[in-house]
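Lab notebook, bench 4. Still working through the backlog of constructs that have no structural model yet. Next entry is a single chain of 414 residues. Request: give me the structure tokens for it.
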Amino acid sequence: MSNAMFPESGLEWPEIEKALHSFRDADVDWRHGRAPMYIFWASEEVLEVTKKAYMEYFSENALGARAFPSLVRMEAEVVRMAAEILGGDESVRGNMTSGGTESIFLAVKTARDYRRATRPVRGTPNLVVPYSGHPAYYKAAHYMDLEVRPVPTRDDFRADVDAMADAIDDDTIFVLGSAPSFSLGVFDPIEDLGRLARERDLWLHVDACVGGFIAPHVRALGYPVPAYDFSVPGVTSISADLHKLGFAAKPASTILYRDEAHYRHQGYEFDAWPRGVYKVPTFTGTRPGGAIAAAWAVLKFLGAAGYRELARQIMDVRARLQAGIRAIPELELIGDPEIGLFCYGSPSLDIRSVAEAMSRRGWLPGINADPPAIHLFLVPLHAVMVDDYLADLGVAVEEVRSGRVAAKPAALVY
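Model written out:
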């Protein structure tokens, strides 16, 4: 068989390694802070811990609970630590997942099945979500034939609880609040949503995929972070990503429920095949043991003090960047975000042209469509880029202001 891509004889490792290194030539230089997201780096020390722990369990599969009780134990301890961080008690139940999308999918699926079991709907079940809600809710609804009812946010980009209340009807099974929203970094009023959920007997999910593992430590440093977790009456479930600001290896997230009565509707069981009972707690079957081990290791390695230090570094980077952006007259910060995720735009310039000018200087701009803005998701790594970023931003703004940048807007794809 002749094939130009698949070799007849295997290659030696040095040749493979050389190819792998060469493939990166066109990648963004994330190690120098030029990516505004995707990479969540805390330190080389933390990176080494996650790598070593992952490799210890590289081949193990968490689908095999009987084969690998060590993974069962570590996952249970990760869930317990997450519950403690997120204001829960011994009643909280949950699992690790492959990421925020799976956590969100499971929250929607579990809310649907809980409602079926307790108070069935007559029409199409619907989710009432702020316009700022993540696309994963629409994706979950698409797969499960549910309706999504997006509700415009307030002028401060936070959920409009009164408007959400008006959108609720007898077929509503789920309401959403973000802590914070990925798009603009602001926290929705979770306490008000909790009161609404209790009044209407509805499932309230808090999307803390971005902030879940860092916001409590930002608050501990004295920054104003509103209540958003299981300490808020009415919160039913929370998604929180370990591989974002938990600084664990990818893929790793958590989905947590207030109690067993809600959690028991999450899993899937099937026995109409020759093998017998197929029973899984999450959407995926095979789950990489390395991701579980790495998450357990980094939580234990950092502890609360370690996360507070990382939170301090992030907030220091935010302060430096925001001060520099404010010093450029054509730019303005958008909203009042609580943690290290924020956007800035321009009342006078095409901000996408500014982003394009930054892209030409080797930066990977994150672009917001509505409102038009440049999006930054900060981690400690970004401390190395602040001066260079602000210098290039000043030049980019001047180029756009003077008309020296052609109208070739940066892409709006996340």
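Notes after review: The chain has a mean pLDDT of 94. The chain has two domains: 19-43+303-401, 49-300. Flag for follow-up if needed.
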